[in-house]
Amino acid sequence: MSIQIDLSGKVALVTGASQGIGAVIAARFHEAGAAVVINHLGTPATLADAEKIASELEARRPGSTLVVAADVAKRSEVQAMMAMTAERLGGLDFLVNNAAIIKDRTLAKMSIEEWDAVLAVNLSGVFNCCQAALEVMRDGGAVVSFGSIAAIQGFFGQANYAAAKAGVQAMMRVLSREGARRGIRANAVAPGVIDTAMAATIPESVRAEMLKNVPLARFGTPQEVADVVLFLCSPLASYVTGQTIEINGGWRG
Fold this sequence. Notes:
There is one protein chain. The chain has a seven-stranded parallel sheet with strand order 3-2-1-4-5-6-7, with helices on both faces. Helix 2 links the parallel strand 2 and strand 3. Helix content is about 45%, strand content about 15%. It has one domain: NAD(P)-binding Rossmann-like Domain (Rossmann fold), CATH 3.40.50.720. It has eight helices and seven strands. With about 250 residues, the chain is α/β, with parallel strands linked by helices. The chain starts with 10 loop residues before the first strand and ends in a 6-residue tail after the last strand.
């Protein structure tokens, strides 16, 4: 007997879904039967990418996607996105907080602008989305937010990013308690190094050193991250909440 995840009739919103891991997550939820809200930042480039993804998904199942521009750091834009989701799709079942930015620099040299920008998107953006989503989310829903291995390992030059991601992981533990009365589960995922366009810019010598910390001796794929996110939103994870799931090939640096 096969076990399948069927999210037919459900609605999933993925932030930062115009490219990378977010785009793969959106496609994975769509494959499982959910209608998908593809959030993007609102630039011409992200709009084009988001519309391309939506077009491909619509070809498989018409009327199953919604493309919405919103900067998660801006509360008014997030509130408008959630209102549009409720109006167009009838509500929300799953929120995946994937949108993030990096501005690496040593703590001694980091500008307050670099600190504020990363915290605004990576931490306050998650708060904005969770708070607004709770207004339209149906009981029994789920939230999955992206923490990071950086929050656990404390990588050099990532004081802002690591602090934000650690905050996200703590926020999900709080939300898991506050959402429990409505059956809303909240978890975080903490990916290690995943083979994306961003990871491809890491010098080969640095990649080789990183791999020494990974027992599986390879980096992860966006699909592997998407599968864990999908699992956490599915009935298979009905008793999993308040957790941070590490997706890092066993990294213990």
